[in-house]
Structure formats: C-alpha cells, structure tokens
Amino acid sequence: MQLSHWVLGAALMGFVPLASALDSKTKLSMLHDLHDNKTPEVILKLKQLLQANPKDKEARFLLAKCYFNLHRYELAKKELERSRELGIDKADWMPLLADIYLSEGSYHKLQDDFNLQTLGQYSDAPWVLKIKNSLAQAYLAQKQNEQAKELFQAILKENPHETEAWIGLTQTALLEQNKKAA
To answer: What is the pLDDT of residues 112-123, one digit of tens each?
Structure first.
C-alpha cells in the first residue's frame, strides 16, 4: 500500500477530514488495508513520510493521534503542537488536545485552555460539543458534579442526540444517588 493511502485510510477512520470523495470500492480497500496493520507500523510509516516531508501537517497530526491511542501523551502533545504550527485545522487539533488533557488528568489545564468563553467564538462548530463533553468529564473527575451536570444539560439543549452528554448526565445522577445513600 502506498503511503498516501495511509493518510487517506486514516481519513476514512475519522482521524483527519477527507478532502475528496472516493468511490466505495476504494474506501473498502483502504479500510481493509488499514485494519490489517497495527499502530506501531502506522507510526513507522508516518515517521518515514515525515523524514521525506517534515512539514506534512496531516502526517504530524496522524502521528499525534497514534501516540494518543498508545497513551503516550507527551509525544502526542509534541506532534500535535508541530501540526498546529504547520496549520492543521482547529477542528482537528482542539478536540484531540482536549482528549489528551482529559486522559492524562490535566483537568485544570483543560479548563483553562478550553473555557466556555473561549469556545463561544466557535459555538456553531460541531467539534465544540466534543470539547464541552471533555470539560464536563473533567468536572466529574474533580467531583464537581453540579458544574458537570449543568454543562451536560447545556450540551443536550444544543444537541439532544449527543450520546456522550446523555452518558455524562447519567453519571452525575448516579453520583448524586450514591451521595444521598451514604
């Protein structure tokens, strides 16, 4: 499989936006090729690509995503910062950075970098809901149940079909029940 197929295949898997439409047969072929490979092999291919073209922002972003999936958050942040410097779209890097902060337990950093006032300027962007969910999860992790509940409710007011927010709201209700039972 050619290296360009890695990037296109990664786009099909939801890692990066896909700029052009591909026919169904090509999509299925790429998904099959990607499914047969492991993340370390993907990392190796991306590193080879970056040796030839160190300014490839999509490859850097995919490398950050691979490191995130392997729970190597420092490396993920490093590659994500490089992709940001090269101009990767906010719709890609902002949700990933929020996920990294949440996963590594940097709740205050998440709340500082992605406060609701800052996100307000992007209110119509669909990726903002993902970050709001991460913020609400950070509140939950810090046992700030009321703030989490309010944010989950606000998310559901914007999009009643947001599954993560429903799950989070259920978590807050269960925590409230456990608190009352104790």
So the answer is: 998 887 787 787
